Amino acid sequence: xxxxxxxxxxxxxLLIGLLFYRANSFYSDQQYVVETPIEPVKIDTQAAxxxxxxxxxxxxxxxxxxxxxxxxxxxxxxxxxxDSFPLVHQRANLDxxxxxxxxxxxxxxxxxxxxxxxxxxxxVVPVDEATANQWQHPPFSGEIIEGTVWxxxxxxxxxxxxxxxxxxxxxxxxxxxxKRSIYFAFGHDEESxxxxxxxxxxxxxxxxxxxxEFVLDEGGVVTENMLPGVxxxxxxxxVAEKGFVNLRLTVKAAGGHSSQPPAHTAAxxxxxxxxxxxxSPFSADMRFILDTFQxxxxxxxxxxxxxxxxxxxxxxxxxxxxxxxxxxxxxxxTSTAVTMLKGSSKSNVLPTEAEAVVNFxxxxxxxxxxxxxHITKAIGDPRVEIEAxxxxxxxxxxxxxxxxxxLIEQTIRRLEPNxxxxxxLVQGGTDASNxxxxxxxxxxxxxxxxNPHTMKRFHGVNEQIAVADYLQAIQFYYAMVKxxxxx
Length: 487
What we know:
The protein is an alpha/beta fold. Helices cover 36% and strands 20% of the residues. It is built from 14 helices and 19 strands. It has helices spanning 2-25, 45-56, 71-84, 86-91, 158-173, 198-207, 266-278, 287-296, 302-308, 311-323, 326-329, 368-379, 403-415, 467-485, and strands spanning 93-97, 101-106, 116-121, 144-145, 148-150, 182-187, 214-217, 222-223, 234-241, 243-252, 256-257, 335-342, 349-350, 353-362, 384-392, 420-426, 442-444, 449-450, 464-466. It has a six-stranded mixed β-sheet with strand order 1-2-6-3-7-17. A hairpin with a 2-residue loop joins strand 4 (144-145) and strand 5 (148-150). Helix 2 (45-56) packs antiparallel against helix 5 and helix 5 (158-173) packs across helix 14 (467-485). It is globular.
């Protein structure tokens, strides 16, 4: 017995030693080493803020109901850009796509260099009437108060559009002749799927046989206190994005008076189907989280490094922990969200048709077809009709070893050396997904700091951005456009 105890004790000590050794050696510091920081460009702060404020005041709202589209607002925004950035409109070629989306092209002198494409979208989501009175400042005021700019689009995504235009205007004022051609693409319906905007821009470019060295859109941000075990802020660059599909579940029945119901009404059958859907989650896939940790694992605390560097032992526990949190669960599997329900129009009338909509955000590796098949099998009831609509496949995954990714990474670090940089999977959808036919190197990042609290302002109440963040966004885009244009 004594030998068994000794052997077991030695085994435990060796195991602990192995765990700690791997925790301290598994991850290495792969961050770009800054030798020459980027010197900030001089910005006329007040003028830039006034222009940004004006952009926020134009209510370029995307509605799912196309009949609510406000043409005047989008035409006003086009005029605002012309008035605010005259050099861009004098020197760059502008194509207006599908009446409202904009494609700028500043031609480079070296045709052997593939052009670079920078993106943003001009539209914003509506303000929910139920929460309109919760805004501290009117959502389309563009007010600048105590170092903060308020309003729809300050984060999502007029910041990219206006900061990009500021960067090009400053470059043109310096009479810089680009070697590499630079394109700006600004869609007008990203918030409602992008089919009339970005998708049409991509089709227009494809007809001209234009391909890009890299594409940069919104999507990644500078995160603070959002990644486990990391005290430093981390700039996450989106290298892929989830797709999406809505499945409409419909059950039809004879209907009638509620005083003589069948054993299962259409609503009851539908309810059973919904329970089965929620009880059949998709399998977890850790590869994107592991890729992120490969770049920042060295900077995490020991409590995080031990399990993450020893997944051969802790993988089930790590996976279970991540699945307990909605935000981390969404990063490792195709997500399922029952979002809409409809039954009878009166409490004493049996529904002739009951309907539910389930929204899925598709992890790369799954497809619209595989999601539909998974749910059809899970429900296993021919009385439930299943129809897919508003579909978009998950994107391919772009490499972190390309010129485009490294330029983004180096620019971030050279502007703010204290930031860590890592790739990640974008959980929402962006206009960038339309451009994979034109480039393999599609990335998503904007120089905006967000934490768990401010992240809620995306599509929420009191959308705002710090003045310092907006000015840094201009610095980032200026540096990116300048470096890319020089080849």
